[in-house]
Amino acid sequence: MLKLTMSERSCDNILVRGVNWVGDAVMTMPALRALKLANNNSKITLLVKPWVSPLFEKDPNVDDIILYEDEYKSITGKIRLSKILRAKKFCLAVLFQNAFDAAMLAFLAGIPERIGYSRDGRGLILTKAVEFDDNSKKLHHVDYYLNLLDRSGFMTQKFKPWIYLTLDERVEARNRLGELKQPVIAINPGATYGSSKRWHPERFAEVAKRVINELNGSVVILGGPKETEIAAEILKSITNEFVSKAPSPSPSPSRGEGYNISPPLRGGLPVR
Fold first, then answer.
1. Beta strand extents in 165-211 (DSSP E only)
2. Integer Cα distance of 219 and 232 in angstroms
3. Helix 22-38 crosses helix 141-151 at what angle (to 10 degrees)?
4. Of the residues 6, 138, 144, 145, which has the fewest C-beta atoms closer than 10 A?
5. Residue 270 preceded by cis peptide, ω within 30
6. If we measure between CA atoms, which residue out of 36, 32, 69 comes closest to residue 52?
7. Where do the DSSP E strands lie in 103-189?
8. How confident is residue 249, by pLDDT bands cut at 50, 70 and 90?
9. How far apart are CA 180 and CA 269, in angstroms?
10. How far apart are CA 48 and CA 112, in angstroms?
11. Region 144-158: what's the mean pLDDT?
């Protein structure tokens, strides 16, 4: 299949409708990078929910961010948002989000080219509807979003997810975690819909113990206040001699819930 970059399609203003959850958003990062590399002269604007946006604030592959605030939930709100998008004069919308809402918003905004998976009954309002076939269903999330670009005719490369941090943030992380034995593995056991969408605590604990025993490494349990209970459950299954605790750091809303160590439960080799 002939692959065309957006410069060849004469589009220099691309809107990407990002996904709504932090974990899924991380999985879109390789596709965002591939999109930018294939169209390095195009401006890429990301439309995402407020709690997802901190992940992309320092991402060099994103030129601008528009927040999908709660005020746009209603029909009149969506019309207002579509007018805001229309004024930006986007020539292409890449829809990582699978919802009908994402396609309808791009349609109402008058964006002439709209690319997304043909899901949620939205195929007719996409100009490029990529079939959600059996192969797509089997893909890892990272490959799922890259596949959307690839089958839409973009030149793509595969990358690992990468969250860009400031120097101060990197130094802070190094100071906080520097005494732990390498490798340091982070576990974020939280899930928006609770136990139906996540592993059992004992399975997380088993992974932690294998990191400690087999890799001679350390484990950090990440989460916001909502993850306090499951973090405690994980610790119940780990022998006390393998767990050290540190004072809880102050909350940092700018990083989004789930990126604070709260509680800061650090697993490692027996504390001496």
1. 184-187
2. 14
3. 30
4. 138
5. no
6. 69
7. 113-117, 128-130, 184-187
8. very low
9. 9
10. 20
11. 93
Average pLDDT on 91-110 reads 97
**Three-class secondary structure of residue 17 per DSSP:** strand
Largest Cα–Cα distance in the chain?
64
Residue-range domains of the chain with CATH: 13-151 (3.40.50.2000), 171-267 (3.40.50.2000)
> In this structure, what token pair is assigned to residue 162?
């990468």
One-letter amino acid identity for 41? Answer: N
- How far does CA 175 lie from the centroid of its chain? 25
Match 């797509």 to its residue by tokens. Answer: 136
Residue with tokens 């990358």: 159
Q: Which helix (H) or strand (E) holds 219?
A: strand 218-221
In single-letter form, the type of residue at position 198 comes to: R
3-class DSSP state for residue 266? Answer: strand
Question: Residue 200: CB partners within 8 Å, gap ≥ 6?
Answer: none
- What φ, ψ does residue 79 adopt, rounded to 5°? -65, -40
DSSP state of 41: T
Q: What tens digit of pLDDT does each residue of 208-228 get? A: 888 888 888 888 888 777 788
